[in-house]
């Protein structure tokens, strides 16, 4: 049987572990989106036609917008760069978004894509926009109690 001190220590360790892992959640969702995109490519797309260029045109506009929104929302990246793991995961997130943007633009520059280029561009852009969207949603729903009180006070002064 665990003592109350051991239980408290285990809870603190579990919370710390969750805090360190939660930054990886958008990346995990991005991997899932890349897997789904790969599955869609295999079963739903005609390899001769590939993905319509309009998809890449839209994604090339969405990814930077989501990156800017994530960066501006509560200085999201600044709040998370506490440890080496967090900084690394943030760097991986930004690299995935940049690669997605690069591949979306590269898919727009040619009239017809080679099958491997279209496949890689489709999978990586799907991963990039899903990582950015999940990160933005997480940043928007994750509120700091101090910021919430400050916003409530500001709202009271306005009304």
Overview of the molecule:
The chain is mainly α and 159 residues long. It has a domain at 54-141. The chain is 82% helix and 0% strand. The protein has helices spanning 4-22, 25-44, 53-72, 76-80, 84-108, 115-141, 145-158. The chain is elongated, with a radius of gyration of 20 Å.
**If you average the pLDDT, what whole number results?**
80
Q: Give the count of helical stretches.
A: 7
Distance between the termini: 55 Å
String of helices and strands: HHHHHHH
Uncertain spans, ≥5 residues at pLDDT below 50? none
Content-based structural category: mainly alpha
Radius of gyration, taken over Cα atoms and rounded to an integer in Å: 20 Å
Number of strands: 0
The backbone outline, from C-alpha atoms, is elongated
The helix content, as a percent range, equals over 70%
Biggest sheet, in brief? none
Task: Report the portion of residues in β strands.
Answer: under 5%
Which keywords apply here?
mainly alpha, 7 helices, 159 residues
Task: Provide a short characterization of the protein structure.
This protein has 159 residues and is mainly alpha-helical.
């Amino acid at each position: 049987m665990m003592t109350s001190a051991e239980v408290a220590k285990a809870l603190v360790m579990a919370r710390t572990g969750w805090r360190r892992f939660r930054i990886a959640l958008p990346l995990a969702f991005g991997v899932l989106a890349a897997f789904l995109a790969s599955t869609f490519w295999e079963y739903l797309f005609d390899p001769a036609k590939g993905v319509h260029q309009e998809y890449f045109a839209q994604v090339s506009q969405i990814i930077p917008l989501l990156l800017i929104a994530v960066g501006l929302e509560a200085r999201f990246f600044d709040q998370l760069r506490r440890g080496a793991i967090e900084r690394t995961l943030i760097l991986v997130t930004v690299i995935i978004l940049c690669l997605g943007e690069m591949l979306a633009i590269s898919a727009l520059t040619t009239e017809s894509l080679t099958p491997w280029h279209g496949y890689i561009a489709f999978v990586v852009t799907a991963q990039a926009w899903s990582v950015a969207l999940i990160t933005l949603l997480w940043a928007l729903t994750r509120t700091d109690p101090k910021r919430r009180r400050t916003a409530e006070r500001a709202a009271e002064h306005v009304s």
